[in-house]
Amino acid sequence: QVQLVESGGGLVQAGGSLRLSCAASGINFGINTMGWYRQPPGKQRELVAAIRPGGRTDYADSIKGRFTASRDNAKNTVSLQMNSLKPEDTAVYYCNARSFLGDIWGQGTQVTVSS
Q: What whole-number distance in Å separates Cα of residue 94 and Cα of residue 3?
C-alpha cells in the first residue's frame, strides 16, 4: 500500500521547537524528491522544504535558518526539525513524495504556534 504518514505535530509556544516525521511505504523512496509543504488557515499550500534524491535541499525563504529537513533512505523516512517557531508557522503540514510517476501526499499534521 502506497502511503505517507506524518507525525509530530502539536501545539507549541512561540520560540519553541517541534520535529515532524514522515514514514513512507509502498514507494521506491530513493528516487523521490521528498518535500514538506504547509497550508496556513485560509491560504494556499506552499513549499517549506524539498530534499532531492541526491541530498540537495531547497528551503522557503520564510523558514531558512530555523527549519532543517533530512531524509533517511535506509528507513524510508523524512523529517523536519522546526526551531524558533513563530505564530505565522501555524498550518497543516504535509509530507510529499514526487517522482516521474507523480505525487503522493500524506494526510497532514496540524502545527499550532501560540504567541
A: 12
Stated as kind and residue range, the H or E segment containing 87 is none
Q: Which parts of 1-115 are beta strand (E)? A: 3-7, 10-13, 18-25, 33-39, 46-51, 57-59, 67-72, 77-82, 91-99, 102-105, 109-114
How confident is the prediction along the chain (115 residues), in pLDDT tens digits per residue? Answer: 999 999 999 999 999 999 999 999 999 999 999 999 999 999 999 999 999 999 999 999 999 999 999 999 999 999 999 999 999 999 999 999 999 999 999 999 999 999 9
